Amino acid sequence: MSKPAKAGDPAKGSLPFEEALKKLEGIVEAMESDDLPLETLLARYEEGARLVKICQEKLAEAEVKIQQLEKTAAGEMKLKPLDLTEE
Amino acid sequence: MSKLAKSQWNFGELFSPAEMRKVLSVSELTGNVRALLEKQIGTVWVSGEITNLRAQSSGHIYFTLKDAGAQLSCVLFSREKVSQRELLADGQKVLLQGEVTVYEARGQYQLIVRDVELQGVGALQIAFEKLKQKLATEGLFAAERKRALPKFPARIGLITSPTGAAIRDVLHVVQRRNPALEIILAPARVQGDDAAKEIAEAIQTLNEFGNLDLILLTRGGGSLEDLWAFNEEIVARAIFESAIPVVSAVGHEIDFTIADFVADVRAATPSAAAEIITENVFVSRALVGDAMDLMQLRVRRRMRIENENFDSLAGRLARLHPRRKLDDSLQRLDDLQSGLLRNLKTAARSRNLVLQNLAGRFLRAKPSNNLKVRRENLKQLEKRLNSLGPEQVLARGYSITTDVASGKVLRDAAKVEAGQKLKTRLAKGEIFSRVAE
Lengths: 87, 437
Fold this sequence. Notes:
The structure holds two protein chains of two kinds. Chain A has one domain (17-81).
């Protein structure tokens, strides 16, 4: 996810995984301090819970997506689903 | 016996001139043979196995090339520029180009070797070393050129056989560790004559398609010949020119192909490559779970502390409340009241006691009670009086003298005057007298 929006990606209104994860780590670390005002702590918690949800959604894919790339005679690129049952 | 008296050496007409042999010297014959061979056969390519190789101090190399049915003497002169000269050894299968001729001094036909091509695995290894050397010099293997892989690849290109074991291994690992990964397969043969070209083209096609975080080039284990496509120059250059980072995982752990050297990352096996690619996402699963737990822990702990603080403050506040002071005063009042009451009771009690005392005494002193007692008392008093009175003293003979006029009792004789009238009381009676002098 180091590149910006890629063609063919599922609709991504939310943060890319890597960024969400990094933010989450930052929040958890910040919450370690006992000096935080209580309101700030709770606000961070809320933000962190939201990021956890985003990350878990992205990790929730159950099936690997594999497609085969074909270049037609005209030079066009086409993706077609791959059937690996033939051995 | 002898027909004619000739010399025993004169055979005369025994052989007709027509039958006269052409007699060659050895040199002549050998020379003929040599010319014949050089003309009729000349330069040839011949294959066989080297045996009996001897390198002379002169630098010339002599050996015998043989196969199952025959053998051929060979010589490689030191002046011949043959690149693999130092690799000629007994047992090496070779293709030789050379001229068939005769070494006349020995009467031996032989091959003068002009060129050598090594055959079999040895040849492949040589070619491998040569290409490796060449590409290294050009900088294709340079460490600085290698690009880091994206930490969280979302979409990758895959170049491998769609029917091999490698693709199954890769998919299993990815399914287990990061099923969200998208894979774009550009299939290619991974061994055989066309493999190198197909692989190079697949790399180029994936680069054209673009939008990939990396390309995984992989195949399963095999012999050196099987893996040979990954040692071809065309593949090496395609990898080098790929704008997308390439991960190479060819064969088993111990196999190193030129593709491995050029690639940005080399993995030991297809599964290992898949693990490297999915590593960070896999690890982050645990991190995300832990993050939730940690945050909840921290908030709960903080709430507990806050609650404790609050209770403590609330307690202090309550103690300082004005109502509390009032309560204190009320309680104090109660205390004082009880105290007062107690004291009053005590005081009352002791007065009672006093009264009772007095009452008691009073009762004891009542007259109606004790006429008898009084009479007794009187009698007693009388007795006492008697014992204290003069009767008993008078009875003993003493007397009491008093002045008649004053009635005073006389104790001192000197105080009496002549003519003074005296009364003397005796146990019985009295005597009246006048002082003589």
